[in-house]
Design a protein that fits this description.
Elements: H1 4-15, E1 20-28, H2 38-52, H3 56-67, E2 71-78, H4 81-85, H5 94-107, E3 111-118, H6 125-139, E4 144-152, E5 156-158, H7 159-175, E6 187-191, E7 212-219, H8 221-229, H9 236-265, E8 268-273, H10 286-292, H11 303-319, H12 339-346, H13 352-359, E9 366-372, H14 377-394, E10 398-405, E11 413-415, E12 422-424, H15 434-438, E13 442-443
Parallel strand pairs: 1-2, 2-3, 3-4, 4-6, 7-8, 9-10
Antiparallel strand pairs: 1-7, 4-5, 5-13, 6-10, 11-12
Helix pairs in contact: 2-5, 3-9, 5-6, 6-7, 7-14, 8-9, 8-10, 9-11, 11-13
């Protein structure tokens, strides 16, 4: 039985503690759109997306209104474009990005993901062409997001791909230099990329997914912090149990919305991603949750342990609340999108090295990190390699979304606006990794990959 106190608690979570559905993401298979003629392929892509997602935004708004649950974003993820475009006789895949952009604008969604390639073991011709097209695609569109998977626990790390992505990121920053390199905010480099992630910029519709599916991402850092305020000074067992109970309630809201959206749209219901995704707003911060546990500032000693507890408790609480939990599910630490993280960087409590350590126990990786514009492609590639190694060895998803901000130096503050927030340019290690990156080849999979 649900008592009135629980009802009021849920109302407070929605009204005062910033609980929301961060995104409803429709995954759409484009495999039937492949065509030797790139013009025909792009028309098929546009038609397929606009047909499947024509009611996505309207349905999201209706559910939000009827249930009183904020649904912040409505998004689309598609089959990795490198797979679809490879059949077409063209060297430049910009036309495919423009088709995605046009379809996204027609359907009214916030972002569309899937200008992507999976190259953890090697490149096909289509993969290589897509990667070469990423800088132009992200500079000439606003809603298109791109992701590249360069490593898996089973395959190891494709260091040729890592090296190439370092150059792609630098070039993308240059092409969007008038907007502080914002094109890089739409580009994620993964290890162990999930095929059902509803969050941007890394969402794509995996090859093993059904024709059309609804995945939902929930978020509620403010709700978790408010719950912990009530047990201030309690032991860590109590902290973990408190987070688990709140994560269960948050996930139930996501499960309700996912099922309702799928039913109304007549498509498959996919997963609920129960990640704690922060925003730049005060009171919606993962960093402040860690500080509520007793840290003077996020980034100080103990931050990794606190984040590990949070991530584990969120997963344990959420997994009981949904039939299908997936995506990334856990705690995100995107620096520019979390006001507590920004504050920690500004006062010197948090740097890239500590962030890297924290990514070993959280849901993603180095996310929305701004670095000096003169950072070399090889240094960026080495940062990607380090994150990929954490993911591969620990059999978890890790990622890098890094922005070398043209013309900016350590300590400069950049305003991206909206959910992307603001970033403080962070220091990178000044010593070179060039010779390491130029070796190329593939770092072998760890022994743990031989499970069978």
């Amino acid at each position: 039985m649900i008592n009135k106190n629980e009802v009021w608690e849920t109302i407070r979570m929605l009204q005062d503690q910033k609980l929301d559905i961060r995104t409803i993401t429709m995954g759409i298979s484009l495999r039937e759109c492949a065509d030797p003629d790139p013009g025909k392929a792009c028309r098929k892509i546009y038609d397929k997306i606009t047909s499947c997602a024509r009611d996505l935004v309207k349905t999201g708004r209706a559910i939000a209104s009827e249930y009183g649950v904020p649904i912040v974003n409505k998004r689309i993820a598609v089959t990795p474009v490198s797979v679809i475009a490879e059949a077409s006789k063209t060297e430049d895949y910009l036309c495919f990005a423009l088709a995605l952009e046009k379809a996204a604008r027609e359907t009214g969604v916030n972002f569309i993901g899937g200008f992507s390639a999976l190259i953890h073991k090697g490149f096909t011709k289509g993969d290589a062409r897509l990667i070469q097209s990423i800088p132009s695609a992200l500079s000439e569109t606003e809603l298109v997001c791109s992701s590249v998977n360069v490593a898996t626990t089973k395959a190891g790390i494709n260091m040729d791909a890592v090296r190439e992505m370092g150059h792609v990121i630098v070039e993308t920053a240059k092409r969007t230099s008038s907007r502080y390199g914002i094109g890089c905010a739409k580009l994620v480099v993964f290890a162990n990329a999930p095929e059902d992630n509803p969050f941007m910029a890394g969402a794509f519709h995996g090859i093993g997914e059904s024709e059309c599916v609804i995945n939902v991402g929930v978020s509620g850092p403010g709700t978790v912090k408010a719950a912990l305020e009530k047990v201030r000074g309690a032991d860590f067992g109590t902290v973990a149990e408190t987070i688990k109970r709140i994560a269960f309630k948050i996930t139930r809201v996501g499960q309700l919305v996912a099922a309702e959206a799928a039913q109304r749209l007549g498509v498959s219901s996919g997963i609920v991603d129960l990640s704690l995704a922060p925003t730049p707003e005060i009171g919606d911060s993962v960093a402040r949750i860690l500080e509520e546990m007793g840290l003077e500032s996020c980034g100080t000693h103990g931050s990794t342990a606190a984040l590990a507890l949070l991530n584990d408790a969120v997963k344990k609480g959420g997994v009981m609340a949904s039939s299908h939990v997936g995506g990334l599910s856990g705690a995100f630490i995107p620096v520019s999108e979390d006001e507590g993280m920004i504050d920690a960087v500004e006062k010197g409590a948090l740097g890239i090295d500590k962030l890297e350590a924290m990514t070993a126990v959280c849901s993603v990786g180095l996310d929305m990190v701004a670095v000096p514009g003169n950072t070399s492609a090889e240094t960026i590639a080495a940062i990607i390699a380090d994150e990929a190694a954490i993911g591969v060895v620990n059999n978890k998803t890790t990622a890098v979304r890094i922005i070398p901000v043209p013309g900016k130096n350590v300590g400069d503050r950049i305003e991206f606006g909206g959910l992307l927030g603001s970033a403080v340019v962070m220091r990178v290690n000044p010593f070179s990794s060039r010779d390491f990156i130029l070796r190329g080849g593939r770092i072998p999979a760890p022994l743990s990959s031989l499970k069978n």
